[in-house]
Amino acid sequence: SQTIHQWPATLVQPVGSPLSLECTVEGTSNPNLYWYRQAAGRGLQLLFYSVGIGQISSEVPQNLSASRPQDRQFILSSKKLLLSDSGFYLCAFDPYTAGELFFGEGSRLTVL
Amino acid sequence: AQKITQTQPGMFVQEKEAVTLDCTYDTSDQSYGLFWYKQPSSGEMIFLIYQGSYDEQNATEGRYSLNFQKARKSANLVISASQLGDSAMYFCAMRATSGTYKYIFGTGTRLKVLA
């Protein structure tokens, strides 16, 4: 069966520190991969999506970056976190192109 | 550009009653898909229902149905016989079925079911 996992689940980081959130997918090949951010009580903002290894599309200019080093691995990074980076980050994949998105468990980031 | 609008930030419904959550969308694509997700307080995103733009019948999944009015560009979610466990955030989303790979979400509606 197809599954997606992301970690860490919770992260508290000081301003200016680096960030790495990781997401892996099992049970499918060449999925489309997505990173979303959800600010407290708000909707989902698409940050990045990828249709293949090394192919990253950025939706919102910011100090975050994404990488896809392997087919089923998607990483969200930052060199220096800002207070405004706090939020709930969700990784998702789409195995069927135009089917529903499957989401990971989410990573709650608090920047202090 | 694609856009999803959910105008109800919060809704209350009495247990066992039906409730409609509104969603309107804007797109120039002819082929697209519409989705509803439920997000409980735990944060997980649970897929509820899907409607394709060329589907003539409204989608139904158990107690969930999607009231699709293409000409009005609306895709409202109807939950029948509300249960306490339905209390959650609900998101409407859209994706074109060709070209772009982006799923666009609305701002959500927080539903509270009252006992």
Polypeptide structure, described:
- The complex is a heterodimer of chains A (112) and B (115).
- Chain A is built from no helices and 11 strands.
- By secondary structure, chain A is mainly beta.
- The radius of gyration of chain A is 13 Å and the shape is globular.
- Chain A starts with a strand and ends with a strand.
- With 115 residues, chain B is mostly beta strands.
- Chain B has no helices and 12 strands.
- In chain B, the strands form 3 sheets. In chain B, strands 2, 5, 6, 10, 11 and 12 form a 6-stranded mixed sheet that branches. In chain B, strands 3-9-8-7 form a 4-stranded antiparallel sheet, with no helix packed on it.
- Chains A and B meet through strand 4, strand 5, strand 9 and strand 10 of A and strand 10 and strand 11 of B.
Entry keywords:
heterodimer; A: 112 residues; mainly beta; seven-stranded mixed β-sheet; four-stranded antiparallel β-sheet; 58% strand; B: 115 residues; six-stranded mixed β-sheet
